[in-house]
Amino acid sequence: MLKKFGFENSYSFDGWVELDMTADLSEDLDAGNHYYPKMIELFDRVRMREHGDEVGVLPVAAFYGKNAGGKTNIIKALRDMAADVLGDYPRPWSRPFFTTPFEIIYNRRCFVVNKPQNDRPIKYLICVVINNIEYTLGYSLNKHGVIDEKLVRRMIPGGADEMLYKREGRSITKGEDADLHGLIDVMESRMDDGLFFPLIALSDEKLKLFNEWFRFVAMGKQINESDKKQQEKELGAIANRIADKKDEPFRERLLYFLQCMDDSIYDLGTITKNKIPELIIFHRSKLTSKIYLDAVKKQFANIWIKFAKNYDDAPEDFEQAFDWVNSKARDGDVEAHRILGEMYREGIGVTQNYKKAVEHFRIAADKGNLDAQRLLGAMYGDGEGAPRDSKQAFKWYLKAAKEGDAGAQVSLGFMYSRGLGIDRDVKKAVKWYRKSAEQGDACAQFNLGIMYDDGRGIEQNYENAAIWYRKSAEQGNALAQLNVGYKYEHGEGVDKDITKAASWYRKSAEQGSWQAQDNLSIVYRYGRGVERDIEQADKWKDMYDKQRAIENGDEYDVVYWHANRAIQIDDGEAVLARYQTAAGLSLARASEGTRKLIEMFQMIDTVLQKGMVFVYDELDKTLHPIAFREIVRHFMSLEKNANNAQLIFSAHDTIVLDCSLLRRDCVYVIEKDEFSSSKIKRLSELTDVAYPDMENDFRKGYYGSSPNVYNKSFFSTKEDKDGEPNA
Questions:
Q1: For the chain: N or C, fewer Cβ within 10 A?
Q2: Contact 400, 435 (CB under 8 A)
Q3: Which architecture, in CATH terms, is 476-555?
């Protein structure tokens, strides 16, 4: 956690500037702020003892002010210090023929007004607390290099300051820490005009964490940074992370984050262009495939027959039966609630309404209906009718799975396999896949075959893999049919049989599997297991090319994706119970705001989990005000920011200047004086101003730092004596 950061003679700041992240706990702070008693508990979790007094460290610091006032320069100075500490400039001993151009560094950073004659050193000081150790690092530099440098640490609570080393020029004075003595002796011979800290930081375990904290500072953004290549690199890293499928919880968190901003987003995926994964955002589409409607009606017809036979007055046409089912539900029929949930979910006989579906599924699920419990889990898992919540999905799947529901068991196995709503455990995934597979569930049989094939959660066994693939394939699972074909073609777990391989490839290819279509085209082209037929080979090759072009995005910016879930029906026929069409938009077509959100999410997500710091200049730029406010709210939240991460940002949007969200000691205003030197003021220190409404008062200019355009013409270049623009 950052406690303090100060600097002098840099950019638009002439004198000493200090960002103090410790809370102002004076009694008069809550004047005019009835939210204060509720907010004070926020700082109980980060208490530290300092000279016998409790000091709370704030999770947020916000900079406000007019354009060109100096907000960005505070963030630039902090990131400059991070660059120095990390050694992010060439060093003489690493490049013998290059001398570090400190004159260039100094001239770029020093106070702009005094540049022609400025010979004053630039000074930096920072105080950071990591694992109950407070580190204070200070140094100054001029155009020749670092003049002096000092590193002090203190154990918290109650420890005394302990100097680790002090440096003047190239002379080092060692502190009493014997562990560092040998390291300092070794590194002293490599010392140059740059900081000494980077030379020892990566060689000492405790200092490594201090060094890592600065890396998070360096990850932040300045408003004048528009490096598209860097953005593409970061977005590419996110796409790789999702494509890898080893960190499913990250994908779930990113998806939930984006759905909060746009509830039309259905899912996230990737396509491959030139062997490089690219992120795809799937939006709900009004397009509905015939196979989906046919599958839904076929499945519901079977459900309806079982339900209706219990009543003599049941309508024959289930699409006209909504009012009748609703009356049975009001009479307390649990299965009727489940049926209503299905009708609302699929829009059968009533306008589709996911929230209503969840309501009825919950009523039935609470009364022990296994189908409703499984379906409620699916609604939470898909984020339909309720916020996407993997833990709730897991809870309801587990209830139904324990009672023997095959569909819930396969879903539970998938959640264990991916680590959704529960810690990842592939052995338990195998256990639940097996329970479901033994009941005849085609999806579970296929997944169990995969686990045997890969040796995940169970000893690798190609014969068992082939057995379970075959069971699933015989029920019409296209991917299982493809894998059975592969097993026969290569004699893996079965006797090699090219004819059988070709037969299974055809079954899979006819269901649209592009891998099977490619394999089938090769089979026909070379006459493997079938009579050689170039026309058939070309036909399947053309189908393969079209499918791959769509999936890889080579020909289209918009791809179509189908989420399907195989459901077992009484007569043993597996159908697509959910076949919802969603339009997948390449991230290249997304707005700059969406790209910024996704890029920002990975940094914020990592910072929150590791309890580090997130630094961002003009955080509100290109973001919806509500999105901006919620990001700030996350850092202020006791629950969501359990690891004491910090957010340091500048902004113009005043939506967060709300006493229910930010305290006055979290807010700083920056403006220039008559000598063009920026000054920083903390709102809690402005004791001569009343604070009933921070946002409104800031807009009215009560704190200064606002454009002086009142009673003036904004675009006038010359005004008369009365302040009115000349004609």
A1: C
A2: no
A3: Alpha Horseshoe (1.25)
Q: How confident is the model over 324-348, as a mean pLDDT? A: 91
Distances (CA, A) of 527 to 146, 524, 534: 76, 5, 9
Indicate if the pLDDT at residue 334 is higher than 70.
Answer: yes
What local confidence, expressed as pLDDT, does residue 119 receive?
73
The C-alpha atoms of residue 537 and residue 517 are separated, in whole angstroms, by 9
Which single residue is written with the structure tokens 């000092």? 150
Cα 52 to Cα 26: distance, rounded to the nearest angstrom: 16
Give me 69's structure tokens: 């006032």
- Cα–Cα distance, 646 to 635 (Å, whole number): 7
Fold designation for 310-397: 1.25.40
Q: Is the pLDDT of residue 112 over 80?
A: no
Give domain limits for the chain: 1-223+617-727, 310-397, 404-473, 476-555
Residue 115 pLDDT? 54
| Exposure letters 298-309 (e unless 16+ CB within 10 A, then b) | ebbeebbeebbe
Q: Residue 590 is which amino acid?
A: A
Beta carbons of 374 and 405 less than 8 angstroms apart = yes
* Domains 310-397 and 476-555 agree in fold: yes
Structure tokens at 678: 């920026």
Q: 239 and 269 in contact (C-beta within 8 Å)?
A: no
Cis amide linkage into residue 157, ω under 30° from 0: yes
Q: Mean of the per-residue pLDDT values for the chain?
A: 78
